[in-house]
Amino acid sequence: MLYVIHCTDKPDSAHVRAANRPAHLAYAETHRDILYIGGPTLSDDGNGMTGSVLIVDFENMAEAEEFATGDPYAQAGLFESVTIQPWKMVFAPK
To answer: What number of CA atoms fall less than 13 Å from residue 40's CA on the CB side?
Structure first.
């Protein structure tokens, strides 16, 4: 089942994101088999990163939660909030 993981960064935490970005990307790479799509949300001007959105494929919510809590960004305390919801694809890129 697909799950959307939406994470919102804590205010003024760009330094935490920057310091942990290499580990976060390495973590994502080791989970490429379950990672459907992912990337940062951006500030209104498009210049700053404000959070993350990932769509992942797991058997159940517990696995999605385990993945989310294992992310180096989460381990570093970057996120103010994290929501995980089941997701159904209706439209896909051509």
So the answer is: 19
CATH code for the domain of 73: 3.30.70.1060
Sorted by sequence, the CB contacts under 8 Å of residue 91 that are 6+ apart come out as: none
* Total of domains in the chain: 1
SS3 8: strand
**Which of 9, 55, 52, 7 lies closest to 31 in space, CA to CA?**
55
Q: How far apart, in whole angstroms, are the C-alpha atoms of residue 74 and residue 88? A: 25
Q: For strand 35-42 and strand 2-9, is the pairing parallel, antiparallel, or unpaired?
A: unpaired
Cα diameter, the chain: 38
pTM over 0.85: yes
Q: What is the pLDDT of residues 16-61, one digit of tens each?
A: 999 999 999 999 999 999 999 999 999 999 999 999 999 999 999 9
Contact between 13 and 69 under an 8 Å Cβ cutoff? The reply is no
